[in-house]
Design goal:
Blueprint lengths: L9 H14 L4 E3 L12 E5 L2 E9 L10 H29 L23 E9 L2 H7 L9 E5 L10 E5 L5 E4 L2 H8 L3 H17 L2 E4 L2 H10 L1 E2 L4 E2 L10 E4 L3 H6 L2 H9 L4 H15 L15 H6 L3 H16 L9 E8 L5 E9 L2 H4 L4 H19 L5 E8 L10 E7 L5 H10 L52 H4 L3
Parallel strand pairs: 3-4, 4-7, 5-6, 8-11, 13-14
Antiparallel strand pairs: 1-2, 2-3, 5-8, 9-10, 12-13, 14-15
Helix pairs in contact: 1-4, 9-11, 13-14
C-alpha cells in the first residue's frame, strides 16, 4: 500500500487537494525527499514525460509604518520568490541526475513513478502567499491583488513592488494566493494544464518580453486566443513582427462574466463522471485492491489513456455514457448487452463502453466476472476491426448501472493494436460471430461536433452597453474562427 503525504502546512494541503484533482491520485505526491534525507519540493507530479515541480511558500507582507515599503518588499521577494526559484532550479538538476526520490524522510519508500531525464518535460512552479492584501492596498487598479510577472532577459533587476522579474532563459511559473485556485481549478486535467504551460514557455522563448498583471489574466488571454489553423490556444500572435506581449488588467474578470463561460461551466458538470471512474480505480491501486495485470504507474493501462482526455472531451464522453446507461433496454429475464463506441481526443484511440445484464442466478457463478471481461475484450477487438485507424482501444465494462442496484464493479481493458495482422483480425472476427458487436442491424451511428466552449442554446440580444475587455474583436473562444462580436458577442 502506498501512503502519501497530504502536505504539512495549510497552503501545502490546499495545493495537494488541487493537484489530486488535476493529476489524480496516482500521479501527484506531496513532500517527496532526496537521497540525502532533505525535501525535494512541496509536491511532485509526474504523468508520462511531464514533470511538475511545485514549491509553496507563505510569508505575510505586512505594512510597517516605520520601515521603507521598498525594503519590506525586497525582503519578502527575496524570501518567498527568489529562494524558491533557486531551489526549483536545484530540484530540476537533481531530477535530471537520475538520483532516487523517496516518499518519506526515512527513505523507506521509493517514489513510484519513473522519470526519464532524456525525455522529461519540466515545469517548475512556485506558489507565493502573503502579498495579496498589501498588493490590493498599493493600487486601486489591481483587481485581485495578484502579482505582476515579467519574463525577459534580466540585465538590471526590476525593483518595483508587486512586480516579479523572471529570467526568460530559465523560466519558472509564479502563481499566488488568488490565482493558484483559478489555474488548477480551470485547467483541472493533465492535458489542459500541460498545454497551457507548454504554450506559455513557447511564448516566453519567442518574445523578448511577456508581461501580465496576474496569471489569471494570462489564462483568459490564452483561452480566448484560438489558432484555428493549428487547432490550439496561443499566447500572443503567430505572426512575425511582434517582440513584446503585454496582457492588460481585468481580462479574467471580463471572461468569467461572459455567458459563454458560465454556460460552459454548467455543461462541464457531467464531465466529472469520467473523473470519478478514474479516481475510484486509482484509489484501489493505492490500496492494492486492484486486480488484473496492468501497470497503472508505468503508463500501460486503460486508466492512463483515460487521464489524457481534456475537460471538454470528458464532457462529451461522460454525456454519452450517461445516455447509454439511461437507454439500456429492460428485459429482466434475458441476457442483454449493449456496446457503445466513443472516439477519443487522440484520433488513433477509441473507447468501448460495454454494459451487461444477466439473470441473477447467472451472476452468482464463480467465473461470471471473467466471462464479462472476455466479452469486453471481444468487443474491443471488434471495434478495431470496425475502425481500422485505431492504435489503441480502451474498454470500460460493467453490469448495466440502470439495474445493478447499489453495488457494481468496473473492468478496464487496454487493447494495443498498432500491429494488427490478419491473424488478429481473423481471431476477433471468429470470437465475435456469436455476439456481432458493431455488426447488428440495430447499430446506430451519430456525428457530433464538440467545442471547448458551449454557447447558450438561444442567443439573446444584449440590452445594455458593455465595456468588456473580453475581446469583442478577438477570435471567439468557441473555435469558430469568427470575431467574438460576430459569433456570440453582443
Amino acid at each position: 500500500m502506498i501512503k502519501k503525504s497530504s502536505g504539512t502546512t495549510e497552503t501545502e494541503k490546499m495545493l495537494a487537494e488541487f493537484c489530486e484533482r488535476t493529476f489524480l491520485k496516482l500521479w501527484s505526491y506531496p513532500n517527496p525527499y532526496k537521497d540525502d534525507g532533505h525535501e525535494l519540493c512541496d509536491l511532485l507530479a509526474v504523468f508520462g514525460d511531464y514533470v511538475f515541480i511545485f514549491f509553496d511558500r507563505k510569508k505575510q507582507l505586512r505594512e510597517t509604518p516605520d520601515k521603507d515599503p521598498q525594503v519590506l518588499w525586497d525582503q519578502w521577494k527575496r524570501n518567498v520568490i527568489d529562494k524558491q526559484v533557486k531551489t526549483a532550479h536545484g530540484a530540476e538538476r537533481y531530477l535530471m541526475s537520475g538520483r532516487h526520490i523517496f516518499l518519506d524522510a526515512k527513505r523507506t519508500t521509493l517514489f513510484p513513478l519513473a522519470i526519464d531525464p532524456t525525455k522529461a518535460i519540466f515545469h517548475k512552479i512556485v506558489v507565493a502567499h502573503g502579498a495579496k492584501e498589501a498588493c490590493e492596498k498599493a493600487s486601486d487598479q489591481n483587481v485581485y491583488g495578484s502579482l505582476a510577472i515579467y519574463y525577459c532577459k534580466i540585465d538590471n533587476e526590476l525593483r518595483l513592488p508587486f512586480h516579479i522579474e523572471i529570467d526568460k532563459h530559465n523560466p519558472v511559473h509564479i502563481f499566488d494566493s488568488h490565482n493558484i485556485s483559478i489555474i488548477l481549478g480551470e485547467l483541472d486535467t493533465v492535458t489542459d494544464l500541460s498545454n497551457y504551460l507548454d504554450e506559455k514557455l513557447r511564448a516566453i522563448k519567442k518574445f523578448d518580453e511577456l508581461n501580465y498583471c496576474g496569471e489569471e489574466d494570462l489564462l483568459a488571454h490564452y483561452l480566448i486566443n484560438f489558432d484555428k489553423k493549428n487547432k490550439r490556444h496561443i499566447i500572443g500572435s503567430t505572426e512575425d513582427g511582434f517582440n513584446i506581449v503585454m496582457i492588460g488588467e481585468g481580462q479574467w474578470l471580463d471572461f468569467i462574466n461572459s455567458d459563454l463561460y458560465r454556460n460552459t461551466k454548467k455543461e462541464n458538470k457531467v464531465s466529472y463522471l469520467w473523473d470519478g471512474l478514474i479516481q475510484r480505480t486509482c484509489q484501489n491501486a493505492l490500496e492494492e485492491r486492484l486486480g488484473g495485470n496492468s501497470d497503472l504507474m508505468r503508463g500501460s493501462s486503460a486508466i492512463f489513456e483515460m487521464v489524457k482526455e481534456p475537460r471538454y472531451f470528458r464532457r462529451s464522453l461522460a454525456d454519452k455514457i450517461n445516455q447509454a446507461v439511461l437507454n439500456f433496454p429492460d428485459y429482466p429475464e434475458e441476457f442483454t448487452r449493449q456496446v457503445t463506441f466513443l472516439p477519443s481526443y487522440i484520433p488513433e484511440v477509441g473507447y468501448v463502453f460495454f454494459q451487461l445484464r444477466v439473470p441473477a442466478n447467472y451472476r452468482e457463478h464463480h467465473d461470471y466476472l471473467d466471462k464479462r471481461r472476455t466479452l469486453l475484450e471481444i468487443a474491443c477487438g471488434a471495434a478495431k476491426n470496425k475502425f481500422s485507424h485505431l492504435k489503441k482501444v480502451v474498454g470500460i465494462g460493467m453490469d448495466a448501472p440502470k439495474f445493478a442496484g447499489q453495488t457494481n464493479s468496473e473492468d478496464f481493458i487496454l487493447l494495443h493494436c498498432e500491429a494488427w495482422g490478419n491473424d488478429m483480425r481473423t481471431y476477433y472476427e471468429e470470437q465475435n460471430q456469436q455476439w456481432k458487436f458493431f455488426g447488428t442491424e440495430k447499430l446506430k451511428r451519430f456525428n457530433e461536433h464538440i467545442t471547448e466552449f458551449v454557447p447558450l442554446p438561444t442567443a439573446t440580444p444584449a440590452t445594455s452597453k458593455t465595456n468588456s475587455k473580453f475581446g469583442r474583436n478577438e477570435p471567439c473562444p468557441c473555435g469558430s474562427g469568427k470575431k467574438y462580436k460576430k459569433c456570440h458577442g453582443a
